[in-house]
Design goal:
Blueprint: E1 2-3, E2 13-17, H1 21-32, E3 36-40, E4 61-62, H2 66-70, H3 81-86, H4 89-98, E5 103-106, E6 110-113, H5 118-131, E7 135-137, E8 141-147, E9 150-156, E10 159-162, E11 165-168, H6 183-190, E12 199-201, E13 205-207, H7 211-214, E14 219-229, E15 234-245, E16 249-251, H8 253-259, E17 270-275, H9 282-295, H10 311-321, H11 334-345, E18 347-354, E19 362-364, E20 385-387, H12 401-419
Parallel strand pairs: 1-10, 2-3, 2-11, 3-7, 11-20
Antiparallel strand pairs: 4-6, 5-6, 8-9, 9-10, 12-19, 13-16, 13-18, 14-15, 14-17, 15-16, 17-18
Bound molecules: flavin-adenine dinucleotide (FAD).
């Protein structure tokens, strides 16, 4: 058993497991309060997932107030109340600005580094850890060491390490090549914690039928998406934005956001309805079609749609309208035009599942929050054991909320672990 060599013999010894967003924040907070901190990360560098967030730009938080924040957390929002009160979205922004990373706020209050470089966020956290004397060890933690309901250390690939407190920040199970492959769930279960059902969230959707593959690679900006529960006819999601057709179904920002609202997708009860021309009502659309038909009056229907639709969509659209593609546009009937309008305003795609968890932005499910004290992030079962970040059973929509959850829970866990509360 190797004890950590303390620089200050009276300092509390804290081990942080996982050097992602939560782990680095927990290490910084704990070290700032005078603890001796060891940060254990199995990858050869810190923040591998953080580097790919926000398409490499890192949507680091959302500049909204607490209530708006909680309304963007579908799973266990109240559990986050204290964490977000102690370390708010404003605190995250001041924190990074003070570390020399200027930020900017974009549409939807999404906050990014001005440089548009996620690497700047990682570098700032990494630098701060080192400047505070956090000992960074690139070792894989294999198990937690617990005796008599008290956590006293961890077993790593290189040996055992002892501490007064352990903070588990191992992340979820999505994008496992970044290092977050579910170890934290195993650690939690091994000491008696419950881990709720793990499933993907913010994930592409699998669709039924040939329509999506026939338009694979086609990306649409400015469409309106409505998802309906076919069993109740209730709208479960409605928004406007960007999406893409793929060989398996649908992806893109709008679809990833929608996926967080489709918990029962396995029951195949959801249908996506895409309004391809949300800026035009039916009357305007009819006028638009008539003007296109006038322009191309001697063309076949199939060759008269270039102004209305992207090339990849024309053949599937003609098929869906049940109009002969070789029919001259001047002979298209009013009824046929009405069919065109129906398809343009309501392209229907039956949804049958999520893509696998390794393609998800976040993991839904995790360490049961009823077993964690929301005021400290300490386990209610094992003293000296804390959890922070995506390993917990909390997840949020897109917009910078998931990273903020990692930072806030880590700050609270770090403060508590440093003070032994
Ligand atoms: C492609 C993508 C884009 C995203 N974009 C955004 C965004 O723009 N904004 C946003 O808010 N959220 C975004 N997210 C979600 C966000 O990245 C996560 O919610 C967040 O990183 C969770 O932080 P964490 O510290 O809990 O876990 P992670 O960042 O996953 O870190 C966990 C760390 O623990 C380490 N680890 C695991 N097991 C062990 C072990 N046994 N021993 C040692 N180390 C271990 C891992 O190697 C990893 O480095 C995105 C996610 C993905 C996949």
């Amino acid at each position: 058993m190797t004890s950590m060599t303390p620089s200050n013999p009276d300092a509390r010894h804290v081990i942080v497991v996982g050097g992602g967003a939560a782990g680095m924040m927990a290490a910084i907070t704990t070290a700032e309060l005078g603890a001796d901190v060891v940060l254990l990360e199995k990858n050869d560098r810190l923040g591998k997932k953080l580097r790919i967030t926000g398409k490499g730009r890192c949507n680091v938080t959302n500049d909204c107030d607490l209530n708006e924040f909680l309304s963007n957390v579908p799973t266990n929002p109240r559990f986050l109340y204290t964490a977000l009160s102690k370390f708010s979205t404003a605190d995250t922004q001041s924190f990074f600005e003070a570390l020399g990373v200027p930020l900017k706020t974009e549409r939807g209050k999404r906050v990014f580094p001005q440089s548009d470089k996620a690497g700047d966020i990682v570098a700032a956290l990494d630098r701060k850890c080192r400047s505070l004397g956090v000992k960074i060890l690139h070792q894989k933690v294999r198990e937690l060491l617990v005796e008599g309901q008290v956590a006293y250390g961890v077993r790593t690939s290189e040996g055992d390490l002892q501490a007064d407190a352990i903070i588990v920040c191992t992340g979820g199970k999505s994008y496992p090549t970044t290092g977050s492959d579910g170890d934290g769930y195993r650690f939690a279960e091994s000491v008696g914690h419950t881990v709720t059902k793990i499933s993907p969230s913010l994930v592409p959707l699998v669709a039924d039928g040939r329509l999506c593959p026939s338009m694979q690679g086609l990306s649409l900006k400015n469409v309106a998406l409505t998802i309906v529960d076919k069993t109740t006819q209730k709208v479960v999601y409605r928004d406007f934005g960007e999406m893409m057709f793929t060989h398996f179904g649908l992806t893109g920002p709008l679809i990833l956001s929608a996926s967080a609202h489709l918990a029962d997708i396995d029951q195949k009860k959801y249908e996506a309805h895409i309004d391809l021309k949300p800026a035009l009502d039916e009357k305007m659309l009819n006028a638009r079609i008539l003007s296109d038909f006038e322009k191309y009056r001697n063309r076949d229907f199939l060759n008269a749609l270039d102004d209305l639709l992207p090339q990849k969509m024309i053949a599937p659209f003609v098929h869906l309208c049940e109009i002969d593609g070789r029919k001259k546009v001047h002979s298209i009937t009013r009824e046929e035009r009405e069919r065109m309008i129906r398809v343009l305003k309501d392209l229907s795609v039956p949804l049958i599942g999520f893509r696998p968890i390794n393609e998800a932005i976040v993991t839904r499910g995790g360490v049961h929050v009823k077993e964690i004290d929301p005021k400290t992030m300490q386990s209610k079962l094992i003293s000296g054991l804390y959890f922070a970040g995506e390993v917990l059973d909390v997840d949020a929509y897109t917009g910078g909320f998931n990273l903020q959850i990692a930072f806030s829970t880590a700050y609270l866990a770090g403060t508590s672990a440093a003070c032994g509360i």
